[in-house]
Design goal:
Layout (H helix, E strand, L loop, with lengths): L37 E6 L6 E6 L2 E4 H6 L8 H7 L5 H4 L3 H15 L6 H5 L2 E3 L3 E4 L7 E5 L2 H11 L14 E4 L5 E3 L4 E2 L2 E4 L8 E4 L3 E2 L2 E7 L18 E8 L2 E2 H7 L13 E3 L4 E2 L7 E2 L18 H6 L1 E2 L2 E7 L1 H5 L4 E4 L10 H9 L10 E3 L14 H4 L7 E2 L5 E2 L7 E8 L7 E11 L4
Parallel strand pairs: 6-22, 8-16, 9-26
Antiparallel strand pairs: 1-2, 1-5, 2-3, 3-4, 6-7, 10-11, 12-15, 13-14, 13-22, 14-16, 14-17, 18-19, 20-21, 20-25, 23-24, 25-26
Length: 442
Amino acid sequence: MGAATFTSLDETHDPAIKSWVNSANSSESDFPIQNLPFGIFNTALDVRKRIGVAIGTEILDLNAAIARGPLPGLPESVICACRQDALNDLMALSKDQIKEIRIALSRALRLGSSQEKNLAACLVPQRDAVMHMPARIGNYTDFFTSIHHARNTGKMVRPANPLFPNFHTLPVAYHGRASSIRVSGTPCSRPRGQVLNNGSEIPVYAPTEKLDFELELGIFVGQGNTLGKPISIEDAEQHIFGVCLLNDWSARDVQRWEAQPLGPFLAKSFLTSISPWVITMEALAPFRCAAVQRDGEAPPPVSNLVSRRNQEMGGIDISLEAILRTDSMRSKAREHTISRPAYKHQYWTVAQMITHHTENGCSLLPADLLGSGTVSGPSDKDLGCLLELTADNKEPLQLPDGETRGYLEDGDEIVLRGRCHRDGYTGIGFGECTGRIVSNQP
Protein backbone atom coordinates (compact mmCIF):
# COMPACT_ATOMS: atom_id res chain seq x y z
CA MET A 1 0.00 0.00 0.00
CA GLY A 2 3.09 2.24 0.39
CA ALA A 3 2.43 5.95 0.66
CA ALA A 4 -1.32 5.46 0.98
CA THR A 5 -0.82 4.19 4.54
CA PHE A 6 0.39 7.60 5.73
CA THR A 7 -2.18 10.33 6.32
CA SER A 8 -1.93 12.91 3.56
CA LEU A 9 -2.35 16.65 3.96
CA ASP A 10 -5.76 18.05 3.10
CA GLU A 11 -7.94 21.13 3.63
CA THR A 12 -8.05 20.60 7.41
CA HIS A 13 -4.33 21.39 7.71
CA ASP A 14 -4.53 24.75 5.91
CA PRO A 15 -2.90 27.32 8.25
CA ALA A 16 -5.11 30.04 6.80
CA ILE A 17 -8.24 28.50 8.33
CA LYS A 18 -9.57 30.30 11.40
CA SER A 19 -12.40 29.30 13.72
CA TRP A 20 -15.44 31.24 14.89
CA VAL A 21 -14.36 30.00 18.33
CA ASN A 22 -12.03 32.95 18.95
CA SER A 23 -9.82 31.26 21.54
CA ALA A 24 -8.80 28.66 18.93
CA ASN A 25 -7.11 31.36 16.86
CA SER A 26 -4.47 32.22 19.45
CA SER A 27 -0.94 31.21 18.45
CA GLU A 28 -0.52 29.88 22.00
CA SER A 29 -3.53 27.54 21.82
CA ASP A 30 -2.91 23.81 22.01
CA PHE A 31 -6.21 23.25 20.27
CA PRO A 32 -6.57 25.31 17.08
CA ILE A 33 -8.99 24.17 14.42
CA GLN A 34 -6.12 22.25 12.78
CA ASN A 35 -5.95 19.90 15.81
CA LEU A 36 -9.48 18.75 16.85
CA PRO A 37 -8.56 16.01 19.38
CA PHE A 38 -11.14 13.75 21.01
CA GLY A 39 -11.80 13.17 24.72
CA ILE A 40 -14.48 12.14 27.21
CA PHE A 41 -16.02 14.65 29.61
CA ASN A 42 -19.00 15.58 31.73
CA THR A 43 -20.12 18.64 33.67
CA ALA A 44 -21.86 19.37 36.96
CA LEU A 45 -25.00 20.28 35.00
CA ASP A 46 -24.88 17.15 32.82
CA VAL A 47 -23.18 14.19 34.47
CA ARG A 48 -23.38 11.93 31.42
CA LYS A 49 -19.96 10.97 30.05
CA ARG A 50 -19.77 11.91 26.38
CA ILE A 51 -17.37 12.59 23.54
CA GLY A 52 -16.00 16.09 23.18
CA VAL A 53 -13.72 17.79 20.67
CA ALA A 54 -11.26 20.37 22.03
CA ILE A 55 -11.37 23.70 20.20
CA GLY A 56 -9.48 26.58 21.80
CA THR A 57 -10.55 26.85 25.44
CA GLU A 58 -13.88 25.17 24.66
CA ILE A 59 -15.19 21.65 24.16
CA LEU A 60 -17.63 20.86 21.38
CA ASP A 61 -20.18 18.43 22.84
CA LEU A 62 -20.32 15.99 19.94
CA ASN A 63 -23.53 14.31 21.08
CA ALA A 64 -25.29 17.67 21.38
CA ALA A 65 -23.97 18.76 18.00
CA ILE A 66 -25.29 15.64 16.30
CA ALA A 67 -28.67 16.09 17.98
CA ARG A 68 -28.91 19.47 16.27
CA GLY A 69 -28.12 17.88 12.92
CA PRO A 70 -25.25 20.12 11.79
CA LEU A 71 -22.80 17.41 10.63
CA PRO A 72 -24.32 16.29 7.32
CA GLY A 73 -23.14 13.38 5.23
CA LEU A 74 -21.87 11.14 8.01
CA PRO A 75 -23.19 7.55 7.83
CA GLU A 76 -25.23 6.12 10.70
CA SER A 77 -22.35 3.88 11.88
CA VAL A 78 -20.16 6.96 12.35
CA ILE A 79 -22.94 8.91 14.06
CA CYS A 80 -23.49 6.01 16.45
CA ALA A 81 -19.77 5.88 17.33
CA CYS A 82 -19.84 9.61 18.10
CA ARG A 83 -22.67 9.17 20.61
CA GLN A 84 -20.83 6.76 22.93
CA ASP A 85 -19.38 7.35 26.40
CA ALA A 86 -15.90 6.17 25.36
CA LEU A 87 -13.82 6.42 22.19
CA ASN A 88 -13.59 2.67 21.54
CA ASP A 89 -16.15 2.60 18.71
CA LEU A 90 -14.69 5.75 17.19
CA MET A 91 -11.22 4.21 17.28
CA ALA A 92 -12.54 1.10 15.52
CA LEU A 93 -13.67 3.10 12.46
CA SER A 94 -11.72 3.05 9.21
CA LYS A 95 -9.24 5.78 8.36
CA ASP A 96 -11.58 7.05 5.65
CA GLN A 97 -14.38 7.41 8.22
CA ILE A 98 -12.13 9.23 10.68
CA LYS A 99 -11.14 11.60 7.90
CA GLU A 100 -14.83 12.24 7.10
CA ILE A 101 -15.49 13.21 10.73
CA ARG A 102 -12.46 15.49 10.80
CA ILE A 103 -13.45 17.31 7.61
CA ALA A 104 -17.04 17.70 8.80
CA LEU A 105 -15.91 19.14 12.14
CA SER A 106 -13.37 21.44 10.49
CA ARG A 107 -15.94 22.86 8.09
CA ALA A 108 -18.51 23.30 10.85
CA LEU A 109 -16.10 25.15 13.14
CA ARG A 110 -14.53 27.43 10.52
CA LEU A 111 -15.04 31.15 10.51
CA GLY A 112 -18.01 31.89 8.28
CA SER A 113 -19.63 28.47 8.73
CA SER A 114 -23.42 28.45 8.43
CA GLN A 115 -23.47 26.08 11.40
CA GLU A 116 -22.04 28.56 13.91
CA LYS A 117 -25.42 29.45 15.44
CA ASN A 118 -26.38 25.80 15.97
CA LEU A 119 -23.00 24.71 17.31
CA ALA A 120 -22.38 27.70 19.59
CA ALA A 121 -24.97 26.26 21.96
CA CYS A 122 -23.00 22.97 22.05
CA LEU A 123 -19.80 24.51 23.44
CA VAL A 124 -18.70 23.82 27.01
CA PRO A 125 -15.84 25.79 28.60
CA GLN A 126 -12.97 23.43 29.41
CA ARG A 127 -12.75 24.95 32.88
CA ASP A 128 -16.28 23.63 33.60
CA ALA A 129 -15.59 20.09 32.37
CA VAL A 130 -14.42 17.00 34.22
CA MET A 131 -12.22 14.89 31.97
CA HIS A 132 -12.32 11.10 32.06
CA MET A 133 -10.39 8.20 30.59
CA PRO A 134 -10.72 8.58 26.83
CA ALA A 135 -11.35 4.88 26.22
CA ARG A 136 -11.88 1.53 27.90
CA ILE A 137 -8.37 0.12 27.60
CA GLY A 138 -8.31 -3.66 27.37
CA ASN A 139 -4.56 -4.16 26.99
CA TYR A 140 -1.45 -2.11 27.68
CA THR A 141 2.05 -2.73 26.35
CA ASP A 142 5.03 -0.56 27.27
CA PHE A 143 7.93 -0.38 24.84
CA PHE A 144 11.60 0.59 25.14
CA THR A 145 12.33 2.56 21.96
CA SER A 146 14.88 5.27 22.82
CA ILE A 147 18.48 4.33 22.14
CA HIS A 148 19.62 7.23 24.32
CA HIS A 149 17.54 6.02 27.28
CA ALA A 150 18.74 2.45 26.70
CA ARG A 151 22.39 3.50 26.64
CA ASN A 152 22.15 5.83 29.62
CA THR A 153 20.44 3.29 31.86
CA GLY A 154 22.51 0.41 30.53
CA LYS A 155 25.76 2.18 31.42
CA MET A 156 24.69 2.21 35.06
CA VAL A 157 24.75 -1.59 35.28
CA ARG A 158 26.77 -2.67 32.21
CA PRO A 159 29.31 0.09 31.47
CA ALA A 160 31.19 -1.92 28.86
CA ASN A 161 28.10 -3.14 26.99
CA PRO A 162 25.13 -0.88 27.80
CA LEU A 163 22.93 -2.12 24.93
CA PHE A 164 21.62 -5.65 24.76
CA PRO A 165 22.16 -7.14 21.27
CA ASN A 166 18.43 -7.34 20.56
CA PHE A 167 17.90 -3.57 20.87
CA HIS A 168 18.91 -3.03 17.23
CA THR A 169 16.69 -5.82 15.89
CA LEU A 170 13.35 -5.26 17.62
CA PRO A 171 11.47 -2.74 19.79
CA VAL A 172 11.66 -4.37 23.23
CA ALA A 173 8.43 -4.35 25.27
CA TYR A 174 6.59 -5.84 28.24
CA HIS A 175 2.90 -6.24 29.01
CA GLY A 176 1.66 -3.77 31.63
CA ARG A 177 -1.52 -3.39 33.68
CA ALA A 178 -4.42 -1.70 31.95
CA SER A 179 -6.32 -1.66 35.25
CA SER A 180 -4.04 0.98 36.80
CA ILE A 181 -4.04 3.46 33.91
CA ARG A 182 -5.71 6.69 35.00
CA VAL A 183 -6.46 10.07 33.47
CA SER A 184 -4.35 13.15 34.18
CA GLY A 185 -4.87 14.67 37.63
CA THR A 186 -5.14 11.37 39.49
CA PRO A 187 -2.85 11.50 42.56
CA CYS A 188 0.13 9.14 42.60
CA SER A 189 0.09 7.23 45.87
CA ARG A 190 3.65 6.35 46.84
CA PRO A 191 3.91 2.58 46.34
CA ARG A 192 5.33 0.07 48.79
CA GLY A 193 7.31 -2.97 47.74
CA GLN A 194 10.34 -5.16 48.33
CA VAL A 195 13.47 -3.02 48.50
CA LEU A 196 17.04 -4.26 48.93
CA ASN A 197 18.93 -1.69 50.99
CA ASN A 198 22.64 -1.11 50.48
CA GLY A 199 24.77 -3.72 52.24
CA SER A 200 21.84 -6.07 52.81
CA GLU A 201 21.08 -9.42 51.23
CA ILE A 202 17.47 -9.60 52.44
CA PRO A 203 14.84 -7.19 51.08
CA VAL A 204 12.41 -5.28 53.28
CA TYR A 205 8.81 -4.27 52.55
CA ALA A 206 8.77 -0.48 52.58
CA PRO A 207 7.66 2.63 50.68
CA THR A 208 9.82 3.31 47.64
CA GLU A 209 12.53 5.89 48.15
CA LYS A 210 13.21 6.14 44.42
CA LEU A 211 9.91 7.23 42.93
CA ASP A 212 10.43 8.37 39.34
CA PHE A 213 8.46 9.59 36.34
CA GLU A 214 8.97 8.53 32.72
CA LEU A 215 8.02 10.92 29.95
CA GLU A 216 6.44 8.85 27.19
CA LEU A 217 4.04 9.00 24.29
CA GLY A 218 0.91 6.84 24.48
CA ILE A 219 -0.29 5.30 21.21
CA PHE A 220 -3.92 4.21 20.87
CA VAL A 221 -4.65 1.34 18.49
CA GLY A 222 -7.38 1.98 15.94
CA GLN A 223 -8.70 -0.95 13.96
CA GLY A 224 -7.34 -4.23 15.28
CA ASN A 225 -6.26 -7.41 13.53
CA THR A 226 -7.48 -10.99 13.48
CA LEU A 227 -5.71 -13.49 15.74
CA GLY A 228 -3.03 -15.26 13.72
CA LYS A 229 -2.74 -12.50 11.08
CA PRO A 230 0.20 -10.12 11.60
CA ILE A 231 0.04 -6.47 10.56
CA SER A 232 2.65 -5.64 7.93
CA ILE A 233 4.88 -2.59 8.22
CA GLU A 234 3.20 -1.23 5.06
CA ASP A 235 -0.24 -1.38 6.71
CA ALA A 236 0.67 -0.54 10.31
CA GLU A 237 -0.30 3.14 10.16
CA GLN A 238 -3.86 2.12 9.23
CA HIS A 239 -4.12 0.60 12.72
CA ILE A 240 -3.07 3.69 14.73
CA PHE A 241 -5.85 6.03 15.87
CA GLY A 242 -3.87 8.66 17.75
CA VAL A 243 -1.54 9.56 20.58
CA CYS A 244 -1.49 11.16 24.02
CA LEU A 245 1.03 12.01 26.73
CA LEU A 246 1.90 9.18 29.13
CA ASN A 247 3.71 9.11 32.48
CA ASP A 248 4.99 5.63 33.33
CA TRP A 249 5.51 6.16 37.07
CA SER A 250 8.31 3.91 38.32
CA ALA A 251 9.65 2.74 41.68
CA ARG A 252 13.32 2.28 40.80
CA ASP A 253 14.42 0.49 43.97
CA VAL A 254 11.54 -2.00 43.70
CA GLN A 255 12.26 -2.40 39.99
CA ARG A 256 15.93 -3.19 40.50
CA TRP A 257 15.20 -6.04 42.93
CA GLU A 258 12.21 -7.60 41.19
CA ALA A 259 13.14 -7.22 37.51
CA GLN A 260 15.49 -10.23 37.33
CA PRO A 261 14.86 -12.19 35.20
CA LEU A 262 11.40 -11.35 33.84
CA GLY A 263 11.39 -7.54 33.84
CA PRO A 264 9.14 -4.85 35.38
CA PHE A 265 6.13 -5.84 37.48
CA LEU A 266 5.03 -4.11 40.69
CA ALA A 267 7.50 -1.26 40.17
CA LYS A 268 5.30 -0.08 37.29
CA SER A 269 1.77 -1.36 37.84
CA PHE A 270 0.73 0.99 40.67
CA LEU A 271 -0.16 3.86 38.27
CA THR A 272 0.21 4.99 34.67
CA SER A 273 -1.09 8.50 33.88
CA ILE A 274 -2.33 9.65 30.46
CA SER A 275 -3.50 13.01 29.15
CA PRO A 276 -7.24 13.22 28.43
CA TRP A 277 -7.11 14.44 24.81
CA VAL A 278 -6.22 11.99 22.03
CA ILE A 279 -4.45 13.69 19.12
CA THR A 280 -5.35 11.86 15.91
CA MET A 281 -2.75 10.74 13.40
CA GLU A 282 -4.60 12.92 10.91
CA ALA A 283 -3.81 16.03 12.99
CA LEU A 284 -0.14 14.99 13.14
CA ALA A 285 0.27 14.67 9.36
CA PRO A 286 2.18 17.97 8.92
CA PHE A 287 4.67 16.96 11.60
CA ARG A 288 5.82 13.61 10.26
CA CYS A 289 9.54 13.26 9.67
CA ALA A 290 12.15 10.70 8.79
CA ALA A 291 12.85 7.87 11.18
CA VAL A 292 16.18 7.87 13.01
CA GLN A 293 19.15 7.15 10.76
CA ARG A 294 20.97 4.10 12.08
CA ASP A 295 24.64 4.11 12.94
CA GLY A 296 26.64 2.43 10.19
CA GLU A 297 27.94 -0.14 12.68
CA ALA A 298 24.46 -1.14 13.91
CA PRO A 299 22.95 -4.30 12.45
CA PRO A 300 19.92 -3.70 10.20
CA PRO A 301 16.43 -4.38 11.56
CA VAL A 302 14.82 -7.69 10.66
CA SER A 303 13.14 -7.57 7.24
CA ASN A 304 9.51 -7.43 8.43
CA LEU A 305 10.26 -4.15 10.26
CA VAL A 306 11.75 -2.45 7.19
CA SER A 307 9.93 -0.16 4.76
CA ARG A 308 11.23 2.69 2.64
CA ARG A 309 8.18 4.81 3.42
CA ASN A 310 8.49 4.18 7.16
CA GLN A 311 12.13 5.27 7.02
CA GLU A 312 11.18 8.44 5.12
CA MET A 313 8.08 9.43 7.12
CA GLY A 314 7.75 7.14 10.16
CA GLY A 315 8.95 9.65 12.74
CA ILE A 316 6.88 12.33 14.48
CA ASP A 317 8.42 15.66 15.42
CA ILE A 318 6.95 16.41 18.86
CA SER A 319 8.62 18.73 21.36
CA LEU A 320 8.01 17.32 24.83
CA GLU A 321 8.52 18.85 28.25
CA ALA A 322 8.60 17.59 31.84
CA ILE A 323 7.93 20.15 34.58
CA LEU A 324 8.40 19.74 38.33
CA ARG A 325 6.34 21.62 40.92
CA THR A 326 7.41 21.14 44.51
CA ASP A 327 5.31 22.31 47.46
CA SER A 328 7.62 25.30 47.81
CA MET A 329 7.27 26.21 44.12
CA ARG A 330 3.51 25.77 44.24
CA SER A 331 3.21 28.21 47.16
CA LYS A 332 4.87 30.82 44.93
CA ALA A 333 2.98 29.85 41.75
CA ARG A 334 6.22 28.65 40.18
CA GLU A 335 7.37 25.60 38.25
CA HIS A 336 10.65 24.33 36.86
CA THR A 337 11.26 22.56 33.54
CA ILE A 338 13.61 19.63 34.07
CA SER A 339 13.58 18.02 30.61
CA ARG A 340 12.82 18.94 26.98
CA PRO A 341 13.24 15.84 24.80
CA ALA A 342 12.02 15.52 21.21
CA TYR A 343 10.10 12.46 20.06
CA LYS A 344 11.84 12.48 16.68
CA HIS A 345 14.89 10.91 18.35
CA GLN A 346 13.08 7.63 19.15
CA TYR A 347 14.93 4.73 17.53
CA TRP A 348 11.80 2.71 16.70
CA THR A 349 8.69 4.17 15.05
CA VAL A 350 5.05 3.69 16.04
CA ALA A 351 4.51 1.58 12.90
CA GLN A 352 7.37 -0.71 13.88
CA MET A 353 5.85 -1.11 17.35
CA ILE A 354 2.54 -2.20 15.83
CA THR A 355 4.18 -4.57 13.37
CA HIS A 356 6.45 -6.19 15.94
CA HIS A 357 3.59 -6.53 18.45
CA THR A 358 1.60 -8.59 15.94
CA GLU A 359 4.37 -10.44 14.09
CA ASN A 360 3.58 -13.69 15.94
CA GLY A 361 -0.14 -13.33 15.19
CA CYS A 362 -1.04 -11.50 18.42
CA SER A 363 -4.33 -9.64 17.98
CA LEU A 364 -4.62 -5.98 18.88
CA LEU A 365 -8.00 -4.47 19.77
CA PRO A 366 -9.35 -0.95 19.23
CA ALA A 367 -8.25 1.28 22.16
CA ASP A 368 -5.37 -0.97 23.19
CA LEU A 369 -2.64 1.34 24.49
CA LEU A 370 1.06 1.22 23.70
CA GLY A 371 3.66 3.21 25.61
CA SER A 372 6.66 4.45 23.65
CA GLY A 373 9.05 3.97 26.53
CA THR A 374 10.99 6.88 28.00
CA VAL A 375 11.65 9.63 25.47
CA SER A 376 15.26 10.77 25.84
CA GLY A 377 17.51 12.63 23.45
CA PRO A 378 21.23 13.04 22.87
CA SER A 379 21.91 15.91 25.32
CA ASP A 380 21.85 16.05 29.11
CA LYS A 381 18.75 18.25 29.01
CA ASP A 382 16.85 15.74 26.87
CA LEU A 383 16.59 12.99 29.48
CA GLY A 384 13.07 11.79 30.19
CA CYS A 385 13.33 10.46 33.76
CA LEU A 386 15.12 11.18 37.04
CA LEU A 387 17.07 7.93 36.86
CA GLU A 388 18.94 9.48 33.92
CA LEU A 389 18.78 13.13 34.96
CA THR A 390 20.36 12.46 38.37
CA ALA A 391 22.43 9.35 37.54
CA ASP A 392 20.36 7.39 40.06
CA ASN A 393 20.59 10.18 42.67
CA LYS A 394 24.39 10.48 42.39
CA GLU A 395 24.01 13.95 40.82
CA PRO A 396 20.80 15.49 42.28
CA LEU A 397 18.99 18.22 40.37
CA GLN A 398 19.62 21.74 41.63
CA LEU A 399 16.24 23.48 41.76
CA PRO A 400 15.24 27.13 42.28
CA ASP A 401 15.33 28.44 45.85
CA GLY A 402 18.04 25.94 46.84
CA GLU A 403 15.97 22.75 46.67
CA THR A 404 17.44 19.53 45.27
CA ARG A 405 15.89 16.33 44.00
CA GLY A 406 17.32 12.89 43.34
CA TYR A 407 13.89 11.28 43.17
CA LEU A 408 10.35 12.54 43.79
CA GLU A 409 9.17 13.53 47.26
CA ASP A 410 5.64 13.61 48.67
CA GLY A 411 3.88 16.75 47.45
CA ASP A 412 5.89 16.95 44.21
CA GLU A 413 3.88 17.26 41.02
CA ILE A 414 5.01 16.22 37.54
CA VAL A 415 3.47 17.98 34.54
CA LEU A 416 4.03 16.67 31.00
CA ARG A 417 3.37 18.82 27.94
CA GLY A 418 3.82 18.36 24.20
CA ARG A 419 3.68 20.55 21.11
CA CYS A 420 4.29 20.23 17.37
CA HIS A 421 5.75 23.04 15.24
CA ARG A 422 6.65 23.27 11.59
CA ASP A 423 7.20 26.32 9.40
CA GLY A 424 4.21 26.93 7.16
CA TYR A 425 1.72 25.10 9.41
CA THR A 426 -0.28 25.89 12.53
CA GLY A 427 1.26 24.44 15.67
CA ILE A 428 -0.79 22.05 17.79
CA GLY A 429 -0.50 20.87 21.40
CA PHE A 430 -1.43 17.96 23.63
CA GLY A 431 -2.70 19.69 26.75
CA GLU A 432 -1.21 18.39 30.00
CA CYS A 433 -0.67 15.13 31.86
CA THR A 434 -0.31 15.82 35.58
CA GLY A 435 0.10 13.85 38.77
CA ARG A 436 0.98 14.79 42.35
CA ILE A 437 2.69 12.46 44.81
CA VAL A 438 0.83 11.65 48.02
CA SER A 439 2.10 9.56 50.93
CA ASN A 440 0.84 6.03 51.38
CA GLN A 441 0.73 5.30 55.09
CA PRO A 442 0.07 1.64 56.04
